[in-house]
Amino acid sequence: MAYDKIQIPAAGETIQVNADLSLNVPNQPIIPFIEGDGIGIDITPVMRDVVDAAVAKAYGGSRQIQWMEIYAGEKSTQIYGADVWLPAETLAAVKDFVVSIKGPLTTPVGGGIRSLNVTLRQELDLYVCLRPIRYFTGTPSPVKAPEHTDMVIFRENSEDIYAGIEWAEGTPAAKKIIDFLCNEMGVTKIRFPESSGIGIKPVSRDGTERLVRKAIQYAIDNERPSVTLVHKGNIMKFTEGAFKQWGYDLAKAEFGAVEIDGGPWCSFKSPKTGAEIVVKDVIADAFLQQILLRPKDYSVIATLNLNGDYISDALAAQVGGIGMAPGANLSDSIAMFEATHGTAPKYAGKDQVNPSSLILSAEMMLRHLGWLEAADLIIKGVEGAIAAKTVTYDLERLMDGATKLSCSGFGAAVIAQM
Ligand SMILES: NC(=O)C1=CN([C@@H]2O[C@H](COP(=O)(O)OP(=O)(O)OC[C@H]3O[C@@H](n4cnc5c(N)ncnc54)[C@H](OP(=O)(O)O)[C@@H]3O)[C@@H](O)[C@H]2O)C=CC1
Ligand SMILES: O=C(O)CCC(=O)C(=O)O
Ligand SMILES: [Mg+2]
Fold it and tell me: How confident is the model at residue 298 (pLDDT cuts 50, 70, 90)?
């Protein structure tokens, strides 16, 4: 491994992936991190302090993370040159070191610049976006019983309209596609062919199966009662509708599920506990009202890329907002952890925002490494800080009698509560 700008910490060792895809984690693993744009500058150092404190407390110096900064986004353009937003060596380091964590990266609306976040997921084939939604007691919420929201989203991360295959209105490429559709494919439904931009929505059987397989396996491993396929298959039949059908087919073929109540819902007995696991589906718009009205009906969610994006923020709001929502992007071997929220530019550099999303993403990372004691300490710290009503502005503004802390102050409160 030779890099140009990335400095490999001398003391650290590389995580290895075993043949069965389990990890061999040394006591001083090198973990690459991307600071992130906007509020990345605020939350990333706080996340590192909290993780270092949890690891030190859990293992008394016998284990330590060796952080290694890698670059993407605005910081990359400062280090590598004006147009270098995602250097090749950043992608290489994420692969070489197996487990990494990132802050948010800016994607301007329009203008043709593609999302670096989506590019990272696609280039590394991190096909699962895993976003657990859980409630911390005492967190202010707009719903009456936020503790009933306990879901784990498996969002397909590599395809769908999110793949960014589109052509701008008025370009020769858009005209070519529109001409092809109208003249060769018999399409008559493009309302304004002269002034349409065009986007393509690929959804594959392979992509669906690998995502749904992970979601069902998660339900088995974590003793969850159901997996719900969320789709808009009544309208987009051969993409979202196919996702639903392929999901059911996989549950039957690989997990032995059989139809219940005349189908299409099906269920199987967990090979681990013998408990029944139901595989069901719901149309996305109905789902968005049911998560408010009947959140207890849902546990593991498997969905497509765009639906998963919307659902992530909607569910996060039910348990306190996107300042509290962690996540991970996973392939079969590589894991890149990241918060659900973006760069919140109006707060950048002000030491105000809630670092919990990134701290809880790091908590998922520690669990992924098998460092459960350190992960548990982070949960204890976050629970303690919220119970003591020492919180950042986003929670304080909705909480009676709370003390408003800065981003770094909240990190210190989490450490003090461990
Ligand atoms: N994975 C990634 O890197 C992602 C990147 N993005 C990118 O981020 C940029 C900004 O996106 P935008 O749509 O504004 O969404 P953001 O998630 O960045 O921010 C929207 C609002 O959410 C609240 N918020 C976000 N993060 C926190 C936090 N840590 N603590 C407390 N409140 C928080 C704030 O609400 P309030 O104003 O009420 O305080 C903020 O104004 C865009 O370029 C977008 O593409 C977006 C999502 C994911
Ligand atoms: O990449 C982006 O800019 C936004 C991505 C996003 O909102 C998400 O993945 O949740
Ligand atoms: Mg999003």
Answer: very high
> To the nearest whole number, what is the mean pLDDT of the chain?
97
Is 52 considered catalytic here?
no
- 232, 280, 351, 394: the catalytic one is 232
CA 16 to ligand 3 centroid distance, Å: 31
Please report the atom of ligand 2 found closest to the CA of residue 340. 10
CA dihedral sign, ordered 267, 309, 127, 244: positive
**Phi then psi dihedrals of residue 73, to 5 deg:** 75, -150
285 is catalytic: yes
224 marked as binding residue: no
Ligand 1 atom showing the smallest separation from residue 341 Cα: 17
Give, in order, the Cα–Cα distances in Å from 389 to each of 320, 377, 385, 395, 397.
13, 18, 6, 9, 11
Reported as a single tens digit per residue, the pLDDT across 365-390 is 999 999 999 999 999 999 999 999 99
Q: CA nearest 306: which of 284, 324, 279, 328?
A: 284
pLDDT category at 77 given cuts 50, 70, 90 is very high
Angle between helices 407-416 and 40-59 (to 10 degrees): 10
Backbone angles phi, psi at 93, to 5 degrees: -65, -40
pLDDT range class, residue 118, cuts 50, 70, 90: very high
CATH assignment of 1-113+353-418, among 3.40.430.10, 3.20.20.70, 3.40.225.10, 3.40.718.10? 3.40.718.10
On the question of pLDDT at 108 being above 80, the answer is: no
309 has catalytic annotation: yes
Where do the structural domains in the chain lie, given as residue ranges? 1-113+353-418
Residue 82 has pLDDT above 80, yes or no: yes
Report which bound ligand comes closest to the CA of 324. Answer: 1
Alpha carbon distance 155, 160 (integer Å): 11
327 is in an annotated binding site: no
Q: Cα(102)–Cα(204) distance, rounded to whole angstroms? A: 28
Q: Which residues pair with 132 in a beta bridge?
A: 152
